[in-house]
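Work Package 4 report. The design task specified in the project plan requires that, given a folded chain encoded as structure tokens, an amino acid be chosen for each position. We show below one input record used in the internal validation round.
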């Protein structure tokens, strides 16, 4: 038996690079992304890419409207930060 993600997504929906992120964002947000990335110190560029990748994944989520409605209605399932961090660690993902 293996655990499956609660909300699965196609891993390649938004590639984890600047071009992939920019392609998933609309014009105004794309410019904000590039502005922030270009202004970032080299040691901060990875964090900028991770944050904007999350934004791009949310923007391209086929269930995004349903999730937004649930969040506004107060019916969106939630979790603790501790649980989310532990889930990322267990999956071998970075935790910053």
């Amino acid at each position: 038996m293996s655990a499956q993600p609660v909300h699965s997504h196609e891993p390649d929906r938004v590639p984890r690079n600047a071009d992939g992120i920019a392609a998933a964002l609309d014009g105004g947000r794309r410019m904000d992304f590039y502005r922030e990335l270009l202004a970032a110190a080299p040691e901060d560029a990875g964090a900028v890419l991770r944050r904007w990748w999350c934004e791009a994944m949310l923007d391209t989520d086929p269930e995004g409207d349903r999730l937004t409605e649930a969040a506004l209605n107060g019916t969106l399932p939630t979790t603790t930060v501790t649980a989310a961090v532990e889930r990322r660690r267990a999956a071998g993902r970075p935790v910053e």
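The chain has a mean pLDDT of 88. Validation will be extended to a larger panel in the next phase.
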